[in-house]
What does this fold into?
Amino acid sequence: MSEQAQQIIARGPRAAAEAAARAIDADPALESATYSILEEDEDRNVWRIDAFPTTDAEADGLGALLKGFAELKVTREALADADWLAMALSGLPPVRAGRFFVYGLHDRGRTPPNTVNLRIEAGAAFGTGHHGTTVGCLLAYDRLLKSHRFERVLDVGAGTGVLAIAAARTGAKTAVGTDIDPVSVRIARENAKVNAAPARFVHAYGLGHRLVRAHAPYDLVFANILARPLVFLAQDIKRAVRPGGLVILSGLLRTQERFVRAAYLARGFRVRRRIHRDAWATLVLTRG
It folds into this structure.
């Protein structure tokens, strides 16, 4: 951006916030926009959207769209030139999701003795373990591990690599992660090294990378991305997972669950479990 980096914040009732989130998802000009939606104050029914535009045009588009919802109060805040994301993460508490304990450098030395401890540093990548989608994936995976073992695992849209690393740390002989962002791939590789996890990460669009193809079909596929990419990749994910194999999908709002589920049911998948955390949904599906 030509100006200082910005954060756009919109606060208001749940219905208005979710409607605005759907509008962002439906706007082709905002297809790559990064935002989150969460419940800020349950008693007062206050929900919050945080958007982090990367261009002036995206900032103007997000601002105009959000201001179109009269019930939302929209503000813009300038972000310091310092590594604001790392500074914000430094104060986050660790997260427990089933057997998994996700923590940052600031909490080293305070990990429980009976958990799978994953030290994840986010940098500029998504997936600290705090977001409802990442927690939902870890909870779904933890439950599956009680009755399944997965030798080959693929993580589509790996971000920090937390899901592929979790798989590698719990018995997967092959754990491969992909991301369209080369910075995320670098961070995921660094996290794998820190956690002594034999997970491999590649920069790739879609599932056509030679490393991804070399280990297919997979016993389990994670895809914690966004609703539209989940639908777009439905057929590719079907090809990547073995018959009877499992997929864990997230990155979608509860309001988008039916849209995503329909795309996979049409391709022979069956719903095994659903997890809801805040406004977010996680789906566990079996390939028929």
About this structure: Residues 81-91 have pLDDT under 50 and may be disordered. The chain has two domains: 6-78, 126-287. Residues 126-287 form a domain with the Rossmann fold fold (CATH 3.40.50.150).
